[in-house]
Design brief:
383 residues, alpha/beta, ten-stranded mixed beta sheet, three-stranded antiparallel beta sheet, 12 helices, globular
């Protein structure tokens, strides 16, 4: 079997684009992958065009060798754009191999260690009574882990000090209202400084939060070590990491407790399994990032089924986020479906996802840009 073509489809699904990638072979078997670099899809399409010149004619079964070929066969290796393109190719190759062998992808990753994949959901309302009501609704629907909304996440002017007090107050109220058994966390989307993040943590009683996600930027592990000395809340980080090497200092220096690995950013399933094994040796749990579409969800479900050190998978398809529309059934007639708060692991060959390619090909790219946040003094701050 030989690879004959790669097709990239930046498609508007729900409220933003998904970059779907199809790889075809000379035996008529094809696979689907997805890239995770939201908002920079055209850059990834360009990288895929470069990679196509390398892998067309290669054996799609040689997944590990192709990964090395794509990563090592250029002087300027790695980086988020190239890793996102490589991720989509890697996932599609697993889909092809599973279909050709008649087995689900988890069998290619060592076999299934769990039959269903527990998820965490996210409230979508501003901190307040409505946020707590949403959280209660999610608990009634079966969720035992969830991420609460931080204050100001829908605004274009963002002043951290104006929001951490409000968020801390309502996280405390949520814990009181929801009880001690539910797992609660907050995603700060790396908007805070070390001092601001420490101040936020110190405004809540101990035990309020079970995890704090991406409180500060990740470029300097030393900054996270400084924050660790000021709080005992477990950290969940890594959704934007583009290789095992970016995870290295965090895992080996015991900085964090949950890896927010994204199979569509880190280098696909091949790289994700390496990070999972490394993390297991340091008792770090996998808590995958999953804000894209059903192809990413399916690939991550297989990954989660095959690793032992797994906690929860992010879902953006809960009753609290139906407005997002990422799992549109017109585009994806066959896809992972939630059963209460869990995804069942598909036993279909490959990923177990079907794409309406006719509809996909009719779509045009729509420019989408994440909000460009600034402070009241006009300076730029993080989204």
């Amino acid at each position: 079997m030989k690879i004959t073509a790669i097709h990239a489809f930046p498609v508007w699904v729900g409220i933003r684009n998904q970059l779907l990638v199809k790889i075809e072979t000379d035996e008529g078997i094809f696979g689907w992958g997805e890239s995770g670099l939201t908002g920079r899809e055209k850059a990834v399409v360009g990288a895929l065009e470069h990679f196509a010149e390398i892998i067309i004619g290669m054996d799609p079964f040689n997944i590990g060798g192709i990964w090395q070929k794509l990563y090592r066969s250029q002087y300027f290796e790695g980086g988020r754009v190239l890793a996102a393109a490589q991720s989509a190719i890697d996932i599609a190759l697993y889909d092809i191999k599973g279909k050709a062998l008649g087995v689900p992808v988890y069998e290619l990753l060592g076999g299934k260690q769990r039959d269903r994949i527990p998820t965490f959901a996210t409230t979508s309302g501003e901190p307040g009574e409505s946020m707590i009501e949403q959280a209660q609704m999610l608990m009634e629907a079966g969720w035992t882990a969830m991420r609460l909304s931080p204050s100001g996440h829908e605004e274009t002017i963002y002043e951290p000090r104006e929001h951490i007090a409000t968020t801390a107050k309502w996280c405390t109220k949520a814990r009181e209202a929801l009880g001690d058994e539910v797992v609660l966390g907050v995603d700060y989307h790396h908007r805070l400084s070390v001092a601001e993040a420490a101040s936020f943590c110190q405004k809540m009683p101990r035990g309020t939060l079970d995890f704090l996600e991406e409180p500060i930027r990740d470029e300097a592990p030393e900054a996270y070590e400084a924050l660790r000395r000021m709080t005992d809340i477990p950290f969940a980080i890594g959704e934007e990491f583009a290789s095992k090497w970016q995870f290295l200092p965090y895992i080996e220096r015991d900085i964090h407790q949950f890896n927010r690995i994204d199979v569509c950013n880190v280098g696909g399933l091949t790289e994700s399994m390496k990070v999972a094994g490394w993390s297991e040796a340091h008792y770090v749990d996998m808590m995958p990032h999953n804000p894209l579409g059903p192809i990413c969800t399916a690939a991550t479900v297989h990954f989660a089924a095959a690793v032992s050190n797994f906690s929860w998978l992010e879902t953006r398809s809960s009753p609290a986020e139906t407005h997002l529309g990422f799992d549109n059934s017109e585009f994806f007639p066959v896809q992972p479906r939630l059963k209460r708060a869990c995804y069942q692991v598909s036993d279909a060959p490959g990923l177990g996802v079907e794409v309406n390619e006719e509809l996909v090909r009719k779509q045009e790219f729509k420019f989408w840009q994440a909000p460009l946040l600034s402070r009241r003094d006009g300076s730029v701050t993080n989204w």
